[in-house]
Amino acid sequence: MKAVSETVPATKGKTALSIETTSDHKTLLGADELIINMGPQHPSTHGVLRVKLKLDGERVIGSECVIGYLHRGVEKIAENRTYQQFAPYVDRMDYVAAVSNGLGYCEAVEKLLMAEAPPRARVIRTILTELQRIASHLLWLGTHALDIGALTPLFYCFREREEILKIFEKYCGARLTTHAFRIGGLQYEAYDTLEKDVERFCKDFESRIVEYEDLLTQNRIWLGRTKGVGILTAEEAIAFGVTGPVLRASGVKWDIRKAMPYAAYDQYKFEIPVGTTGDTYDRYLVRMEEMRQSRLICLQAIENIPSGPILAKVGKVLKPPPGEVYHAIEAPKGELGYYVVSDGTIQPYRVRIRPPSFVNLQAFDRMVRGHLVADVVAIIGTLDIVLGEVDR
Amino acid sequence: MQPASQATLEFLKLYWAPLLCGLAVVAVLPLIAGYVVLVERKIMADMQARLGPMRVGPHGLLQPIADAVKLLIKEDVIPDSADKLVFWLAPVLSVGAALLSLAGLAIGPAFQIAQDINIGILFVVGISAMGIFGIVLGGWASNSHYSLMGALRSSAQLVSYETAAGMALVSGLLFAGTLNIKSIVEAQREQGMWFVILAPVAFFTYLVASIAETNRAPFDLPEAESELVAGYMTEFSGFRWSLYFLAEYTNMIVVASVATTLFLGGWLRPFASVRWLDFLDFVPPLLMIAVGAYCVLRVPKQPSRMQQWFMLAVAGLCIALALVLAMPVIAPVLKASLREAAKPFFAGIHGGFWFLLKVSAYIYLFMWLRFTLPRYRFDQLMRLGWHFLIPLSIINVLLVGVAMIAGAYFHLHGWWLLLATTPAALVALVAALLILAAEKQSETRPDRAVPSDFYAG
């Protein structure tokens, strides 16, 4: 990741393995600095992220993320597949939020086709995507708490996530890489009890989220471990281009669901939670509130699902007119953008994906400097990265 | 006969009982530690809405044995760059210290390996602190960054919290007036109450410090999985790793036993000197019968014939234990002449039961905390130790001393002594909180490095 090393002024004697530090840093007692290698096989780098840390004792004075261990060339694959064939591949990027990935891609291609999904499809898409947001945030909460040492929330989070995955399974047969949507709408009609299932989940979830907050929100150790850790100011956040909860926790009220509504978000009322200080605790609070808001969106959506067709007439063979389009959605982790170029054939000429995790990871070095090793894992957790998406 | 072998013979004649006990402890303790692990996993599963180990044996009851076999037959890996001798020695040191410190403990009035050492508690605390050598040397010998950091954290943590724990023990010992383990428990019988009531602050301090000393969550930084992979144990595997594991759980038992002995009345029944509460003697056998009955009830629900037999065997074991425990209560009714003859034996049985029950409760508290709380950061851990626990325990020692003098002056005994010690404990707590508050105001955040040019790239 080149950008990180460029965030500090270049100094002389730079080698491939050296990590840039603030030039005038003095270690305690003039001791040697220690470079340790965190990952790619480390229990809390959330996959195969490798972080090279330069330490003064336990204090981090420089860091460098080494990525690419999960690179599969997704964007290149797109150029050799038809539009429909490529759709399942995007599920494998952010594999804990596959539904959101699919939504972004389908809508981008629909934009290119100048087609629009029917209202019924859009509402069902919204429901599933919001459930996916809750599932993704639950996974984040569980692993983040586990990184900070709280073992138990993980299992509570998985219990609720399981309910969501069950709904996905009932809907499309898959749990993780769902490929739930099709270009132009939906492949499958909603199953009979979808509304009931979602409603029951939402009802349970209200008290469950209180359970998590009981364990963490006012916990002194949790406060000590998250308050003031990994502060990212609003200017910095914007400069780094971070999006999603990380950006909102820094106090920037930016949510694509409100700013550039897609799917059926313009029909529903919901709040955008924002933080004040931009530390790890704020990001925690923002995500917790987002789960509540997603729950409200789901409840509003199931009240009135319009009837009608679920698939727009886009044809069996998709041949979008030559042109390019950029479409972004608010994925659980931030702005997930698809830039699709068509040359008029059945295969995209180029698909460029803007993954939120990759961009958010840029801020990592900025956030860890001056903190302790223990905070590094807290910050990796709070950025909520998925390496499948970072490396693509 | 040669003089050397004669000396050996005399030595054996004198010390055959403690030697046998020691052998029994070394042989049985790994099994006990294994089952403590199983219990921990079961409790954890219970708190986390899942089942825990269920595959090996009914309800996973054979899991520890399977684990032990797995660890024993694993390949023995010593990293190339490791210091071979120290790498070999370190886990042995760790587990040796932990097992040795058990020798000083008394499980019931009758069972103690090193009978009546006059420095009892001091011996236990001193020897168990030696275990840190195993951790530091192990971390150093592995020649790996994570191990080294784990070892450094561990040594810093142990040194800090040993002080607080020691001071807390002193507060309790002031009431006992002796270091001898048996005398400490007897002192609690004479006072008519456990020292946890007389010195609650000391007990609390020891509780926190002992969690930190045994490297358990929320103070498990030396082996913080999410940060340091496995801390000092990173490079250890197979049998060596299991030795460290054994040492950790043995240490848990040791600190729990020390706390039980000094603060929770050792092997004494609750309210040991209150005659009309004698019916509490029925609790141990009834408890075992209840457990046995529960096992019998669960038998039809077992999936296979094998598991049903196993469950029945467990139930039988519980009932047998209940019978043994019931003997002291029933025997005097049957034959009055038996009463005097069998008294020490019976006291031993019930004493052992109560002691183990208290130790289990203490360890359960450890586990409960582990599953509930996040982990402290290293600087926070040190701050808690040096800025709160150590001042608190020192103030407490001073005030307990003053309270003792005041109590002696006014001839206060038993429950009346609380009149002097309760205010002392409160003052100690308030003083420590004041120190903490003053410290918090002057607290500085870790300064961030000079802002980098975040518009670049």
Number of domains as seen in the coordinates of chain A:
2
Output the CATH topology of the largest domain in chain A. Cytochrome-c3 Hydrogenase, chain B
- Do you know the CATH architecture of the largest domain in chain A? Orthogonal Bundle
Strand order of the largest sheet of chain A: 1-2-3
Short summary:
The complex is a heterodimer of chains A (392) and B (457). With 392 residues, chain A is an alpha+beta fold.
Structure characterization notes:
- The complex is a heterodimer of chains A (392) and B (457).
- Chain A has helices spanning 2-6, 74-78, 83-91, 98-113, 119-148, 152-172, 194-216, 220-226, 234-240, 245-249, 256-259, 280-303, 356-361, 364-368, 373-383, 387-391, and strands at residues 34-38, 50-56, 59-66, 181-182, 185-186, 323-331, 334-342, 348-354.
- Chain A is of the alpha+beta class.
- Chain A has 2 domains: 2-66, no CATH class; 74-391, Orthogonal Bundle (Cytochrome-c3 Hydrogenase, chain B), CATH 1.10.645.10.
- In chain A, helix 4 (98-113) runs antiparallel to helix 5 (119-148), helix 5 (119-148) runs antiparallel to helix 6 and helix 5 (119-148) packs antiparallel against helix 15 (373-383).
- The longest helix of chain A has 30 residues, at 119-148.
- Chain B is mainly alpha-helical and 457 residues long.
- Among the domains of chain B are: 15-73, no CATH class; 82-266, no CATH class; 275-341.
- Helix content of chain B is 70%, strand content 1%.
- Chain B contains 17 helices and 2 strands.
- Chain B has a two-stranded antiparallel sheet.
- In chain B, helix 5 runs antiparallel to helix 6 (145-176), helix 11 (238-263) packs across helix 15 and helix 16 packs antiparallel against helix 17.
- The chains are: A alpha+beta (392), B mainly alpha (457).
- At the A-B interface, helix 1, strand 1, helix 5, helix 6 and helix 8 of A face helix 6, helix 10, helix 15 and helix 16 of B.
